[in-house]
Design brief:
Elements: H1 2-28, E1 33-35, H2 44-53, E2 57-64, E3 74-78, E4 84-86, E5 90-96, E6 101-103, H3 112-121, E7 152-154
Parallel strand pairs: 2-5
Antiparallel strand pairs: 1-4, 3-5, 6-7
Length: 155
């Protein structure tokens, strides 16, 4: 019984060795490779054409916001340029989304303190305020706002 177990274990080890060191290296190196083009700094549409002509695929990854860079410009790519990869591999790119906009929240009925906090959470600041008396709300509460809720404004 022990002899049979050792023989089976030996056969399994030999099969693993053959698959790992002979078959898999042959199989993995059997496909075509291509050099990754440099696409950082390009517009996404231009880059897509170049990447697809190379036999690769482009996928949009992150979106980063920067007011000094045009919208749609590629900021980063992975894998990097001039790296050798297999034909058909995906190239993930980080694209500039321009200047980031925030949605204006509805502040009506909130205390002035809550309104400031809500705006700060969205990267916005409270503008000029006018104090008025109201029977509907107590003092230091927002009665109305000039910029309508749901509007998109610069941070």
């Amino acid at each position: 019984m022990l002899k049979k177990s050792l023989i089976y274990i030996g056969i399994i080890i030999c099969l693993i060795f053959i698959v790992n060191n002979v078959i898999m290296p042959w199989y993995v190196q059997h496909s075509d490779t291509v050099t990754v083009p440099k696409i950082t700094g390009m517009n996404f549409i231009e880059a897509k054409n170049i990447v697809e002509e190379s036999g690769l695929e482009i996928k949009q990854g992150e979106l980063k916001y920067d007011e000094n860079i045009p919208i749609g410009q590629i900021l980063d790519q992975n894998p990097p340029a001039d790296e050798t990869v297999k034909y058909g591999r995906r190239i993930y790119v980080t694209i500039c989304g321009g200047e980031q906009l925030s949605e204006v929240p509805n502040l009506k009925g909130k205390s002035l303190r809550d309104a400031k906090f809500t705006l700060e959470q969205r990267g916005l600041k409270l503008g000029a305020t006018v104090k008025k008396n109201s029977a509907e709300y107590p003092a230091e509460y927002v009665l109305s706002q000039i910029i309508q809720p749901g509007s998109k404004v610069k941070r």
